[in-house]
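[job 4417] fold queue: 2 targets
>>> target A
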Amino acid sequence: MTIALKGTLVIVGAGKMGGALLEGWLKGGAAPSRIVAFDPAPPPEVQALIARHGIRLNPEARTIADAEVIVVAVKPQLMEEALPTIVPMGRARPLILSVAAGKTIASFERHFGSDAAVIRTIPNTTAAVGRGITAMARNAHVSDAQMKLAETLLAAVGEVVEVENEGLIDAATAVSGSGPAYVFYLTECLAAAGEKAGLPAALAMKLARATVSGAGELMRASGIEAATLRQNVTSPKGTTYAALQVLMAENGMAPLFEKAVAAAAARSRELAN
């Protein structure tokens, strides 16, 4: 990944996600002189990163006349307060790249104009360790070159996929955006079940954490379908088979996940309105 910028790359919100992106861009060769960060109080580690590379922090927005991309990474509840302060940079016709949950493309068009180039994305928390996946949707004003640049910027924290239309962002939010929490809870449940089976609590959690993270890495590294991997470790009438008879029963995990994902997608649509 090589990040070549013609203008200024602006990051609005330098918290955990913004900081992870910033670190990834710098590792990808983006020139610090081309980056500007806006955040009233970055976390200490991000503040140190900004200072170490000499990145401009909180300059007057009107002084940025060549904004090429504005990456919006502020919390949704702070969006309406933050956006008006950066609108002056819109005169350069930058790409607006949102990594904020629950904010529609239309909400950015209201601030930057109906003809603004806007990409809405939903990253996830595993971006913090470079293993994230980001789904994105664009409006009709985003050029192919801008789309390619957005993919390069987002690839700094993991994989990138494009969905056909913005409506699918809610489903992507329910699967990948919220998904890490489901996996963390699965780990909690697995550890708790191991404890009930007689294992010491600390050992049960250690086994559960290593199992979940190892299984995820095996899926990633092998590229083999999850169903095939499951079948490969399930001996006929063995211990795994016995457990899967419970988990794959009519009232097992599948219907629970269907309900959970549907609930998350519905909530995503509510928050966007």
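>>> target B
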Amino acid sequence: MNEIQADTQSIPARRLAVRVTKDAARQIRGGHPWVFNNSITSLKPAGQAGDLAVIFDENRDFMAIGLYDPDSAISIKILHHGKPAQIDEAFWTTQLAAAHNLRAGAFDPTHTTGYRCVHGENDSLPGLVLDRYANTYVLKLYSAAWFVHLEQILHSIAQVFEPQSVVLRLARGLQNPASNFLFHGEPLSDGRALIGDLPSAAVQFIENDLRFEADVVHGQKTGFFLDQRDNRARVRSLAQGSRVLDVYSCTGGFSVNAAAGAAALVHSVDISAAAIESAKRNMARNGGRPAVRACTHQVSVGDAMTVMSQMIDAGRLFDIVIVDPPSFASRQDQIDGALRAYGKLTELAVRLINPGGMLVQASCSARVTSERFIESVGDAAYRSGVQLDGISHATHAIDHPDTFPQGAYLKAIFARIVPLR
């Protein structure tokens, strides 16, 4: 990536004239938010990250405008389709207000104070995520094209959301280049406060009346996996009297919900000792609830497949097994390997479930379709001598809209385990 060594306010975003292939033009007219580098047939003048790419059709009429990102395979992130628009602070404010209004009334602040405010492409702000944890907001950027617009974006965030503080998180690929980009005279860095003070400890928030913490400075993603909120609530409704295994538990979102649902026992498994400690704190944080206080909470730090294999050898059995791994396929050539991994996890999980018990298995790999994921899990269960009965599918929570095919990354299944006859 090209090094950027100036303050945001000294790099004006230029407008680039862009022509694209017929197929790309068709997809743009259909509202798709991405233009790949191999779809660009003409771009003048040569641009840099954050320039505004104005896309014209074959008649030289305006089609769309987006952010130019020369170092990404997705070279243009579309911001606006249809008629020409001025991209300025008023534009950002309008886009953020629309995202805010979309979620208006979705969450009672006495019951839920942690949710996604902006979901990237699905809110017409591609490569930008804004999550709320009580009065602390986390701005996560996935493209260097946003750097030159950061000042205006922050003004608009302050106007629409009135945050107490905003913490910047950067995608892994941006963290080193970001150190060469000055914002108000200071290098951009992952975990930096852009508005207000940097939290000195994990931020506490509420989700469906349960209390959690989010490490917004060092934690995974923005500090918590908000997209599984509805699926966690569903586990809570199913957990009464159950023995529950939560694999890839991270900071215990599913574990705490199971305990709150009156599970008899919950066992959390994660490879990160820090995540397990957070899960233990989250469980204790909800100890005022009789159901949580009565639940036995066990933990294991280790590789998921290794721990599951050890549990099988030890004859452990559960009524609900939750398998929610990280993305296994960030590239197209990783899809087959991801499907094999999902299958292996299923084979292990069903051997740990009592007959009639429930498997909850999820995938957050956008490149793996729901159909292939379900097929992989079902085939693995069959190879293990069981079938999945009464499968139901779940996807994103309401604050994670999906408006284009690649935006529908999260898929989960809930299914009863029935031995083959």
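[job 4417] complete. Note on B: The chain is about 25% helix and 30% strand.
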